[in-house]
Write a structure and sequence with these properties.
heterodimer; A: mainly alpha; Sodium/glucose cotransporter; two-stranded antiparallel sheet; B: mainly alpha; elongated
């Protein structure tokens, strides 16, 4: 099937894309001191100078966490299968903020004191174990890669409904995607984290505009929320011919309560273990910036909730998300809805918002993955004496490689591979939670026990996910829900794996403690976990201590 | 007015700096009073637990503006959670300021005591 190109909408998307590209390049000198010219350190390139205040952090994290893929996938899930796989995103993003309120200011303080750039830096310093740190870093990088690839899926959905691309010519289909990503890679390279921080303003304002208009206008046009929910109810409770069960869930029933709340809780705990979320936190200016954001970021959750409901609006409106090969692809439902229901120019703004919404997280994710590679693999294992300038250069190059990898992924491989890996990524990343979060409060856990617990969680989660078979396509990795072994209670696999991981870590810690296994050196102090921006950093303290105690041994090797 | 430039008590340099300099173990905050943290913890726990109990809200009725209870209840939790987080923010930040001022504001003695306790 070939679609007509919608020239008005396409022009608006292209113009807005050029505007943000220019902003991205100009961002290199935004909020920058003279010494920082050229961005020759990870603090400057990878964390935007560690000086973002409340509002910039709000836009940055909002742009970072609510990705284009979210905008496409959540309403698509609502449209296709309803509440359990779609609307759980609302409780997920509600419980997310109390959780980060509790844990993230401690991570900020200790990272500020020690100059940590990644969660793996912290784990390495806390447990004195570069292997545990490597495990956290590898998990972060591997989980982030498919996430970046999925941002491209978001852009692709927009380009498809705009009429770009055909089912015959693969190169023509992918060319706009390649151009978009090359431009993105270029300004991320030159401007670092400042580029997505600046672009996030445009992206978020466009998204809010598009959704507020759609949520007010479409229900009026279609006869009110009552009829929209009734249409959704009718579709979702119809019996599927393949499985003999209802197509989806309109409202959760006792049978899927456990699935619903474990999906929400597991996803919320996992989200801030992803490197790109940590990068957003550590780029903020003070200990309490992130807490202030926990109170104002929920505005994005409200927006996400209404966006999810647009999936039901599309059911009522009779939107037909037909892909290039003629099959139904629910991921096209939101772009298609905007194109059908609004004048071309407004549809162009909404589609541009989704496409730009892919650029912000893709940039931050590639920066975060690159920082992890530089700090926890390159520096820890190959070049212990790397200076800040070398670190920044390595990170810049790795951020390019990461993006090329994601691009090849999406173009060369089937889209479902990226989706399967993203699903696995969520399970894997949650397995770093015990090492990172418990470490913020206690050194009780043994480092090797945590490492073995992590491995057990990863293996269990991967095998369980493999064993989920999609009833329609008979493919493996058919979903992220499976019964707890030995019961018939279906829950999010990541949560089962997490509990197993934690149990193994607790039991082995007791065992290793009994065997008197060496503990490793903790480089952090109690005072580090409450430090604020005006407190001296460890590097400054060490300099001062050496000065007053001449000849004394350096306090930290 | 020159007072305009004076940093707030909790952001002043630690007076320990004057007597040989702060060390790695110089406390950044004084001892905690548990009450504000307990209250904040209860508020945040409520904001985590209540939206995660589908048995409380898996109903169609009552509808609000045509929206089933299941949907509007969960959307309503977004502003409720924001309010609870704001109160928790105020409680913990006020206590944080007091603790930071405790090792700075009352001069070297408080810092000394805190340092010895650590």
């Amino acid at each position: 099937m070939t679609r007509e190109i919608n020239w008005v909408a396409l022009s608006i998307v292209v113009v807005l894309f050029i505007v943000v590209a220019i902003m991205g390049f100009m961002a290199s000198s935004w909020r920058r001191s003279k010494e920082a010219a050229g961005l020759h350190s990870l603090d400057e390139w990878g964390l935007g100078g560690r000086g973002f205040g409340t509002w910039i952090t709000w836009f940055l994290l909002g742009g970072d966490l609510y990705t284009a893929y979210t905008f496409v996938a959540v309403p698509a899930a609502m449209y296709a299968t309803g509440a359990v796989s779609g609307f759980f995103a609302v409780p997920y993003t509600v419980v997310l903020y109390p959780i980060i309120f509790i844990i993230m200011s401690r991570l900020w303080s200790v990272s500020h004191r020690h100059g940590y750039v990644t969660a793996a830096d912290f784990v390495g310093g806390r447990y004195g174990s570069r292997w545990l740190s490597l495990a956290v870093a590898l998990t972060g990088i591997v989980a982030t890669m498919p996430y970046i690839a999925l941002q491209l899926v978001g852009i692709k959905a927009v380009l498809t409904v705009l009429g770009l691309g055909s089912s015959q010519n693969a190169l023509l289909t992918d060319l706009p995607l390649i151009i978009a990503f090359v431009v993105l890679a270029a300004y991320t390279y030159t401007s670092g984290l400042r580029a997505p921080a600046m672009i996030a303003f445009v992206k978020d304002i466009l998204i809010y505009l598009a959704i507020i208009v759609a949520v007010i206008y479409l229900p009026i046009k279609l006869g009110g929320w009552d009829t929209i929910f009734d249409a959704a109810h009718a579709k979702l409770s119809a019996t599927s011919q393949v499985t003999g069960k209802p197509v989806g869930a309109f409202i959760t029933s006792p049978a899927n309560y456990a699935s619903y709340w474990t999906l929400a809780l597991g996803s919320a705990m996992a989200l801030f273990m992803y490197p790109h979320s940590i990068t957003g936190v550590l780029a903020s200016k003070g200990r309490n910036t992130i807490r202030r954001n926990a109170a104002i970021l929920p505005l994005y959750s409200l927006m996400l909730g209404f966006l999810a409901l647009l999936g039901f609006v599309a059911i009522k409106a009779g939107t037909k998300p037909i892909d290039l090969d003629g099959s139904t692809n629910p991921q096209l439902v939101i772009p298609q809805l905007f194109l059908d229901a609004f004048p071309s120019w407004f549809a162009g703004i909404a589609l541009a918002a989704i496409a730009i919404g892919a650029l912000v997280p893709a940039a931050i994710m590639s920066i975060a993955a690159a920082n992890m590679f530089t700090r926890n693999i390159y520096r820890d294992f190959f070049k212990p004496d790397a200076d800040p300038k070398t670190e920044a250069n390595v990170s810049k190059i790795v951020s390019l490689l990461v993006k090329v990898g994601a691009l090849v992924f999406v173009i060369a491989m089937d889209q479902t591979t990226a989706i399967n890996l993203q699903l696995l990524g969520g399970i894997w990343i949650l397995q770093t939670f015990p090492a990172v979060v418990a470490g913020l409060y206690t050194r009780w856990f043994d480092r090797w026990a945590l490492l073995i617990g992590w491995a057990v969680g990863i293996i269990f989660g991967t095998v369980s996910a493999y064993n989920v078979v999609n009833p329609t396509t008979k493919q493996h990795f058919g979903g992220s829900l499976a019964p707890i072994p030995g019961t018939d209670v279906t829950v999010y696999i990541a949560v089962t794996a997490f509990v197993l991981n934690l149990l193994v870590a607790v039991v082995l810690t007791l065992v290793f403690r009994g065997l008197k296994v060496p503990q490793g050196r903790d480089l952090t102090r109690a005072s580090d976990y409450g430090a604020d921006e005006t407190d001296p950093k460890v590097a400054q303290l060490e300099k001062a201590e050496r000065f007053v105690e001449p000849g004394g041994p350096p306090p930290v090797a | 007015m020159s007072g305009h430039d004076t940093p707030a008590p909790d952001q002043r340099p630690n007076p320990a700096a004057a007597e040989g300099g702060p060390t790695r173990d110089t406390p950044t905050r004084g001892p905690a009073r548990p009450l504000p943290y307990v209250i904040a913890g209860i508020l945040l726990a409520a904001a985590i637990v209540l939206p995660l109990m589908p048995s409380l809200y898996s109903f169609d009725q009552p509808r609000w503006g045509g929206m089933p209870f299941f949907y509007w209840y969960q959307l309503l939790w977004v502003p409720i959670s924001a309010v609870l987080s704001s109160i928790a923010y105020w409680l913990t930040v006020t206590e944080d300021r007091r603790r930071r001022a405790a090792v700075r504001g009352n001069g070297a003695h408080a810092a000394r005591r805190g340092g010895d306790a650590a």
